[in-house]
From TrEMBL:
Gene3D superfamilies: 2.60.200.40, Probable inorganic polyphosphate/atp-NAD kinase, domain 1
Pfam families recorded: DAGK_cat, YegS_C
GO process annotations (BP): phospholipid biosynthetic process
Stated family: Belongs to the diacylglycerol/lipid kinase family.
Name the UniProt record assigns to this protein: Lipid kinase
InterPro entries: ATP-NAD_kinase_N (IPR017438), Diacylglycerol/lipid_kinase (IPR005218), Diacylglycerol_kinase_cat_dom (IPR001206), Lipid_Phosphate_FormReg (IPR050187), NAD/diacylglycerol_kinase_sf (IPR016064), YegS/DAGK_C (IPR045540)
Cofactor(s) essential for the protein: Mg(2+)
C-alpha cells in the first residue's frame, strides 16, 4: 500500500521552484501518493499541516532551514513524521542529520523509512531545530538578501559575515545556566540544539541533535580582528576551546540584556531578549539515512 504524503515545497527557496517537478517525479516513482499544497503566509503552513493530520502518513518539506522552522509548530502539534528535501541555501538541519543534498538521494532516504527521534530547542514559545542566537548572527541575517542567497548560495553568508564583523560592537549580557550566573561583554551568543548553523558552522564539535541538552557559546572578544582569527575553528566547532569563548551546556538557559535584542532562530528573527531557552527531548520523528 502506497504511503500518502503531504508535500510542502517553498517555491521561493533557492532551488524550490526548479526542484519541485523533479521531486514529484522521484517520490511518485518510489511509491508515494502525494498531496501537493502551497501557502502564502507563514502561519498558513501550520494550518495546512493540521488540515491533513488524519489524511496523510507523513509530511515532506522542501526548502531550507527557514521553511522547516515555519513548519515546526504544525509538525509538533500533529506528530506527523517529517521527510526533508534540502532545497534551501544553507540546509544546516539536513547537514546535521546526514541527509544528502542530492534530490534523488534525499527522496530515497524518505522512501527507505529509517527514522530518528530528534530534540528541538525552544525559546520564548518558539521552537527551533538548529541554533537560536543574538548579536553578530542577527546582523548577518539582516544583511542577507534573497537575491544574494539565490545568486551566491552559502558564500552569501561569508560575504555578509565579513561586513558585519568589521562593524561589530560588544554588548553586555547576563547568562544564567545550571544555577550559575555569568555577566560580561560579548558580540555573539548562540544556543544550539543541533550541530550546524549559518551555512555549515558548528555550535560545538561534539553537539548532536538528540543528546537532550543545549550547547551555548558566548564570543567575548575585545577587537573585531579576534573574530577573524576564531572563524576557522567555528567551522569545526573547536572555537569552544579558545579563551575568548565561554562555552556551557545545559537543559535550560536564560539570557538577559540591558535592552531588548532580536533573536535569530534557524535563520529567521522571531523573538527578543530577555530569553528563556530549553531543550524539548525526542520531540519529532524524522526520516534519516541508516
Amino acid at each position: 500500500m502506497n504511503q500518502r504524503a503531504l508535500l510542502l515545497v517553498n517555491h521561493h527557496s533557492r532551488q524550490g521552484s526548479q526542484g519541485l517537478p523533479e521531486a514529484i517525479g522521484y517520490l511518485e516513482k518510489l511509491g508515494f501518493e502525494l498531496i501537493k499544497e502551497s501557502w502564502e503566509r507563514p502561519h498558513q503552513m501550520v494550518d495546512v499541516i493540521h488540515q491533513y493530520k488524519h489524511k496523510v502518513d507523513l509530511v515532506i518539506v522542501g526548502g531550507g532551514d527557514g521553511t522547516l522552522n515555519t513548519a515546526v509548530d504544525g509538525l509538533v502539534e500533529t506528530q506527523l513524521r517529517l521527510g526533508i528535501l534540502p532545497l534551501g541555501t544553507a540546509n544546516d538541519l539536513a547537514r546535521t542529520l546526514g541527509i544528502p543534498t542530492s534530490l534523488p538521494e534525499a527522496c530515497k532516504v524518505i522512501a527507505a523509512g529509517n527514522t530518528r527521534r530528534i530534540d528541538l530547542g525552544w525559546v520564548n514559545d518558539k521552537y527551533f531545530f538548529n541554533v537560536a542566537s543574538l548579536g553578530l548572527s542577527v546582523k548577518i541575517t539582516q544583511n542577507l538578501t534573497k537575491q544574494a542567497k539565490r545568486r551566491w548560495g552559502v558564500f552569501a553568508y561569508a560575504v555578509a559575515a565579513i561586513k558585519v564583523i568589521l562593524k561589530s560592537r560588544p554588548f553586555t549580557a547576563e547568562i544564567r545556566v545550571n544555577n550559575k550566573s555569568y555577566q560580561g561583554k560579548t558580540v555573539q551568543i548562540a544556543v544550539g540544539n543541533g550541530r550546524y548553523y549559518g551555512g555549515g558552522m558548528a555550535v560545538a564539535h561534539d553537539a548532536t541533535i538528540d543528546d537532550q541538552k543545549l550547547d551555548m557559546y558566548s564570543l567575548e572578544v575585545k577587537h573585531w580582528w579576534e573574530i577573524i582569527l576564531i572563524l576557522p575553528a567555528m567551522r569545526s566547532g573547536h572555537h569552544v576551546n579558545w579563551r575568548q569563548v565561554r562555552a556551557i551546556s545545559g537543559q535550560e538557559i536564560e539570557v538577559i540584556t540591558r535592552k531588548p535584542r532580536p533573536i535569530n532562530t534557524d535563520g529567521e528573527i522571531t523573538t527578543y531578549t530577555p530569553a528563556r531557552f530549553r531543550v524539548i527531548p525526542k520531540a519529532l520523528e524524522v526520516f534519516v539515512p541508516k
